[in-house]
Automatic annotation (TrEMBL):
Lineage of the organism: Eukaryota, Sar, Alveolata, Ciliophora, Intramacronucleata
Pfam annotation, one family: DM10_dom
The protein's name: EF-hand domain-containing protein
Domain of life: Eukaryota
Keywords: Cell projection, Cytoplasm, Cytoskeleton, Repeat
Organism for this UniProt entry: Paramecium sonneborni
Record bears the keyword Repeat: yes
InterPro entries associated with the record: DM10_dom (IPR006602), EF_hand_dom (IPR002048), EFHC1/EFHC2/EFHB (IPR040193)
GO CC annotations, alphabetized: axoneme; mitotic spindle
Record localization: Cell projection, Cilium; Cytoplasm, Cytoskeleton
DM10 domain segment(s): 91-197, 254-366, 422-522
Domain EF-hand: 546-581
GO biological process terms, semicolon-separated: cilium-dependent cell motility; mitotic cytokinesis; mitotic spindle organization
PANTHER family: EF-HAND DOMAIN C-TERMINAL CONTAINING PROTEIN (PTHR12086), EF-HAND DOMAIN-CONTAINING PROTEIN 1 (PTHR12086:SF9)
Major place of residence: other
């Protein structure tokens, strides 16, 4: 018997009036559940269950209970209810959402807002919500439980609370005037919504604030730019090999260069079309851009627009190029196709052609056929710079040197011609051609110096003629007014008319040296070559039935009196009657060739045989 049972019943059962039994020794509790042979069993020895003796008798006799006992009333709700309440159906079922809210930061130069990540828990059993923020070590911000578990109203002062249907991904939700952005959820939450027939949308990424980016950059370990060089140095110092990753490419593509013709249309106020040559070196994938220079372009001579280097597609401009963490993409041969544009540090250049080696390389290696693009033909710019007239001082070449250059150089002389042709002087007897009748009888000696192409004129005089003889013109170079070029030795032919300043002279005769000199140079003095003269004379035979009739008619017209010899005037008159237009020099050399006795008479027999007649 316990100690409490010995107390009188009148003592109230209140704290302080009940005492523990000091004589009690067995304090164990009876175990009702046990696991026997893998089966959970319950001990019912200490459980008293009331039973109906009538029902027990009917079960023993095998009689239906509805005949002996009567019909049983259907229970309103069994031990396991047919309609489970939420606290039973969703026991320990929690929806979890990942969200964030934006918190403003003041008086901080590094950031003006901060992203704080939170987790929203929704308990399906009673519709309560609690919000917690994961703790971040050394954050300096109070974190942990943000909103205690409770039902959160949609609006303050009203009994309309949030349900699981109000929580959707990629949406904003307001808890006590603080807006949360729901980004993602766990797998159970997504399956629950799909089971309920309201699937969730795709999740979105959590944004990053400046503090997180700064922290990642601060903790990022950047190796010094020369770390690789140090490692290679120590490896070679310890006896290792020097690594060279691009050696094979260099050996296989050394001195192989792809050359492209590009054009840049400078659209600025003073811009124009600029032509360049882009060379791509296959050995190390570097490029250089050379300017195509044109004469009188007015631009400074800069040979290179871009030195040899790799050309990035989008260059990264920074004050410390060696410390940038961004990776640049450079141009490769696949980008350099005729008709495409290449951007060279802000200049859009158009590729319109390439050389033969480049076309062969693209067709053989890359399987691409380079087709040149057609450009609009530019109109050539014509610049006219008038040359000032000759001032009369020195030679004309000296004056032109001051026109063509700011620092004139003395004109170059043909020294070789001076040494080889200086001893040759061609002298001609000539007459003056003038509108005054009396002056046509004046005779002159014109000397042409082959060494320097100068001309000197002397005037001859007869006794009591009233004409002074002597030097008529100083030795100097003279220009041909018809061609505006200086006179050369081929311009001095017998019968030709030369003009020095305002005076015109007709060359009548030449001395023996001049005649022999012209005869020895048939390539220059073609009218002094007897073979060409005879061939020209025989061409007139085409107007006759045969060659013999041509010869007979020629002899009859020349030697009308059948003397066997004719004078020079008779030769000129006969050729004029026949219509054979031979020059004075050609007639002169015919006369000299067939003058046998030296009497300045043409021998008809020799002339007959010379032009192809048969000997009698």
């Amino acid at each position: 018997m316990s100690l409490n049972a010995q107390f009188p019943k009148q003592v109230p059962f209140l704290p302080g009036h009940v005492f523990s039994d000091p004589y009690k020794e067995n304090h164990h509790k009876t175990q009702q559940f046990s696991n026997i042979n893998g089966t959970v069993q319950e001990k019912t020895n200490f459980i008293h269950e009331e039973f109906d003796p009538n029902l027990l008798d009917s079960m023993k006799m095998g009689t239906p209970p509805n005949l002996t006992y009567g019909s049983r009333q259907p229970p309103e709700n069994d031990y396991i209810p047919r309609i489970q309440p939420p606290w039973l159906k969703y026991d320990r079922a929690v929806l979890r959402f990942y969200s964030y809210f934006q918190e403003s930061v003041v008086e901080n130069p590094n950031e003006n807002y901060r992203i704080r990540q939170v987790i929203i828990y929704y308990y399906l059993s009673d519709g309560t919500i609690h919000v917690t923020e994961p703790r971040i070590q050394n954050s300096g911000i109070p974190q942990g439980l943000f909103i205690k578990r409770q039902k959160i109203p949609k609006k303050l002062g009203k009994q309309d609370f949030y349900t699981w249907e109000d929580l959707q991904l990629c949406s904003n939700i307001n808890f006590y005037d603080r807006v949360y952005r729901i980004c993602d959820c766990d797998t159970f939450t997504r399956e629950f919504y799909e089971y309920m027939g309201k699937p969730l949308s795709l999740p979105e990424q959590l944004p990053r604030d400046n503090f997180q980016a700064q922290k990642e950059t601060k903790d990022l370990k950047i190796n010094p730019p020369d770390t690789k060089e140090y490692k290679e140095y120590f490896e070679v110092k310890l006896g290792g090999g020097h690594p060279n990753g691009g050696l094979n490419k260099y050996l296989s593509n050394d001195r192989k260069v792809l050359s492209f013709d590009i054009i840049w249309d400078d659209s600025s106020i003073e811009g124009q079309l600029n032509y360049y040559t882009l060379n791509y070196y296959l050995a190390d994938d570097t490029c250089e851009v050379k300017e195509v220079r044109k004469q009188n372009s007015g631009k400074d001579p800069y040979p290179l627009m871009l030195r040899r280097q790799k050309i990035p597609k989008q260059p990264i401009l920074t004050h410390y190029p060696g410390m940038t963490l961004k990776k640049e993409e450079f141009y490769s041969p696949l980008d350099l196709i005729c008709g495409n544009q290449v951007r060279i540090y802000g200049r859009d250049c158009f590729i319109y052609n390439c050389d033969d080696f480049t076309k062969e390389y693209y067709l053989r290696v890359l399987g691409i056929q380079q087709k040149p693009a057609t450009l609009k033909q530019e109109r050539g710019k014509k610049f006219y710079q008038p040359v000032p007239p000759y001032n009369g001082y020195g030679y004309e070449e000296d004056s032109l040197g001051s026109v063509y250059s700011l620092q004139p150089k003395p004109p170059k002389k043909d020294v070789r011609k001076n040494f080889t042709q200086d001893q040759f002087i061609l002298r001609f007897e000539s007459r003056l051609i003038s509108e005054v009748r009396e002056e046509n009888s004046r005779r002159f000696i014109i000397s042409f110096y082959c060494g320097d192409d100068t001309v000197q004129v002397y005037q001859t005089s007869e006794r009591n003629s009233g004409i002074w003889g002597g030097k008529f013109q100083e030795r100097s170079r003279q220009k041909n007014p018809l061609t505006n070029d200086y006179y050369t030795e081929k311009d001095f032919q017998l019968g030709a008319i030369v003009q020095f300043n305002v005076y015109k002279f007709q060359l009548m005769r030449a001395d023996e040296f001049t005649v022999n000199y012209m005869k020895q140079k048939p390539d220059v003095f073609k009218e002094a070559d007897i073979k060409q003269i005879i061939a020209k004379l025989r061409m007139f035979a085409d107007n006759y039935p045969n060659f013999d009739s041509f010869l007979l008619d020629l002899m009859k017209k020349l030697d009308k009196q059948l003397k066997g010899q004719i004078e020079f005037e008779e030769l000129a008159t006969g050729l004029q009657e026949l219509g054979f237009n031979l020059t004075l020099q050609e007639q002169y050399y015919l006369m000299r060739e067939f003058d046998i006795n030296g009497e300045w008479k043409l021998n008809m027999q020799s002339f007959w045989e010379g032009i192809g007649g048969k000997r009698s």
